[in-house]
Amino acid sequence: MSEIRVCIPEDAIAVSALLGELGYTVSPRQAAEHIRQLGETGADPIFLAVSEGRIIGLLSSHLCRMLQYDKPVMRITALVVDRQARRRGAGKLLMAHAEALAAAAGCAFVELTSAMGRAEAHAFYRSIGYEANSLRFRKLLAVTG
């Protein structure tokens, strides 16, 4: 059985590896800095699923106000469970933890985006009560300077 705990900069090696499973290249040094920075905002909680002393899952989120909604919203910005630990409840536990935090913060709902090709992730989200309701667009910007 997994337990959930807050992510700290010292978890950066495991965080880097988990993000790599999603296709993101984030060095342990970068991960430690991001964890530190996000930990200071008060609006960007990051949680880990730990089983038998090993980090097996990660959920990062952002609590925000949006002009169009009466209440705050929690956005899940990343969710990943180690390939070897999937289908054992860690993802559900992380999501339930985030949902409880969102409810305590007065949020109207929890939302997330998932890449178009992640069929297994989509099935997981549907299985825990989420439904597709929008299409995300993005444009990469050229960095100057």
Description:
The protein has one domain: 3-Layer(aba) Sandwich (Aminopeptidase). The protein contains four helices and five strands. Strands 1-2-3-4-5 form a five-stranded mixed sheet, with helices on both faces. Helix 3 links the parallel strand 4 and strand 5. It is globular.
SSE order and pairing:
Blueprint lengths: L2 E4 L5 H10 L6 H14 L4 E6 L2 E11 L8 E9 L8 H15 L4 E4 L6 H9 L18
Parallel strand pairs: 4-5
Antiparallel strand pairs: 1-2, 2-3, 3-4
- What is the residue-averaged pLDDT? 94
Low-pLDDT runs? none
Shape: globular
- CATH homologous superfamily annotation: Gcn5-related N-acetyltransferase (GNAT)
Counting DSSP H or I runs of 4 or more residues, the number of helices is: 4
Order of helices and strands: EHHEEEHEH
Oligomeric form: single chain
Helix-strand category: alpha+beta
CATH classification class: Alpha Beta
**Major beta sheet, strand line-up:** 1-2-3-4-5
Question: Helical content, roughly?
Answer: 25-40%
Number of domains: 1
- For this structure, the CATH topology is Aminopeptidase
* N-end to C-end Cα span: 49 Å
- CA radius of gyration is 15 Å
Beta fraction of the residues?
15-25%
Largest sheet: 5 strands, mixed
> In total, how many beta strands?
5
> In the CATH hierarchy, what is the architecture at level 2?
3-Layer(aba) Sandwich
